[in-house]
Specification:
The structure is a homodimer. Chain A has about 130 residues and is mostly helical. Chain A is about 50% helix and about 10% strand.
Chain lengths: ~130, ~130
DNA sequence: CGCCTGTATGTGCACGGGGCAGATATACAG
DNA sequence: CTGTATATCTGCCCCGTGCACATACAGGCG
């Protein structure tokens, strides 16, 4: 929430909840399905692809990747090939791919709930308060 | 997440994040826009309307309503009219209505992000891991 | 050389929403 | 009198996230 949009009618943005909405793991799995990558790059890709320009917190991303490795969703290898500090290259595992599929189903359910919200809202909108 | 759906392909449901996804306040505002109501009833309506049969935690709902009253989003009056324990009748305020509008915009943004997720997923799906 | 910037990874701390468990009270049915 | 449905509320804890900060490597510049 509160992803940089202006306030609406002077009501300060609600600003509750995480900016990446509990789907950070899902996004990471998705991006890694696209191609193996390291944390810093994922950070940048996340900022673009998720729609709002705001990149998530680096610490959170790195922590998530580590946890996901512990859980067998991804594997990592140090990459010293290019100049600059070494990077940890992450790859999706079979398990990670399966979880991504589960996430996709979850996201669809989630979206249909949001649709329901919006359809109810559009029904009610404009009516005087009861 | 993990709203009672079965596991997908043996992968245990991710189960991270709140069941009502950080939109509890939005749902409460929306339902109250529909008609004034009390906590217990909102609890039941939430369980039906949000799509998954699972009702949110009562404590969480009551606490949210109280907070929302403190913030001027709703007002409450005790209702002794019917039999049984007294209930606290909540009504949406002008402020609450404005915030609901802001929430609706937020939900739309949110949904478009989920759309983006799903469209990327459907592009990638089926491809072998890189 | 020293300094700054950009790349890249990581830790400690604190906040805040929400789930879980349980307390309380009223009415009514058996 | 005990149990069940209705109705509200509190305490406690978990967990994900954001923020601030630390670390390290490489290259450019005066």
């Amino acid at each position: 929430m509160c992803v940089g949009e202006e306030d609406v009618q002077g009501v300060p943005c609600s600003c509750r909840g995480p900016r990446h909405e509990g789907f950070l793991e899902a996004w990471l799995l998705l991006l890694l399905k696209g191609s193996p990558s390291h944390g810093y790059e994922l950070l940048e890709r996340l900022g673009q692809v998720t729609g709002h320009g705001v990149a998530p917190d680096p610490g959170t991303v790195y922590r998530n990747l580590r946890r996901m490795e512990d859980e067998g969703l991804v594997t990592s290898n140090w990459d010293f090939s290019d100049a600059g500090p070494p990077r940890r290259l992450y790859r999706l595992t079979e398990q990670g791919e399966e979880l991504l599929q589960a996430w996709a189903a979850e996201v669809e359910n989630y979206r249909s709930r949001l649709d329901r919200f919006l359809s109810i809202y559009s029904e009610l909108r404009g009516r005087p308060r009861a």
